[in-house]
Amino acid sequence: MTMRFAGVLVFLVILGLAGCQRGAQVPELVISEVWSRPVALAQPDSGAAMEQMHHAGSNGVVYLQIENRGAAADRLLRATSEVCAVTELHETIMQGDRMRMQPVTSGLEVPAHGRLQLSPGGHHIMLMNLKRDLAAGDSIAVLLEFEKSGSQTVFSHVRQP
Ligand SMILES: [Cu+2]
User: Which positions ≥6 away from 132 have C-beta within 8 Å?
Assistant: First the structure.
């Protein structure tokens, strides 16, 4: 084998690898239907607010849908928002006849050619210790971090379910 031929061969192999790289299977995420329930923070020094205490809370929620049109799975690792101090990914589980929520620590999978649905009674993003009310009509920015697709900011529309 001549040096020149060997050189061409190496070049072709590199070209082939580059081609594979370009056609690599990657996730392709489309995020839609991002919404939150309205939350009125309790006003401790207001009698009227005390009466409605059971309607008020300090935590908010974000629901959304992530469609993956790509051939590789991805993973929603975490979410953050400026409206709260701490944001957690939660799952809803049944314990006896009671529904309760617990944090998901390893993220949520977005399957290849599939979808991840965050919806009432299921997985959701929990906005812990809200700094302000979430009023119907508001739009709040939420930063989503994915294992492969990086970070993406979405806007959650505050509305009644
Ligand atoms: Cu929760």
Answer: 41, 83
Cα–ligand 1 centroid distance for 94 (angstroms): 13
CA of 20 to the centre of ligand 1 (A): 41
pLDDT 10s per residue in the chain (161 long)?
566 666 655 555 555 555 454 456 899 999 999 999 999 987 666 555 444 444 456 999 999 999 999 999 999 999 999 999 899 999 999 999 998 999 999 999 999 999 999 999 999 999 999 999 999 999 999 999 999 999 999 999 999 99
Measured in Å, residue 25 CA sits from the centre of ligand 1 at: 33
End-to-end CA distance of the chain: 72
89 CA to middle of ligand 1, Å?
7
What separation in Å is there between the alpha carbon of 53 and the centre of ligand 1? 19
Supply the pTM of this predicted model. 0.78
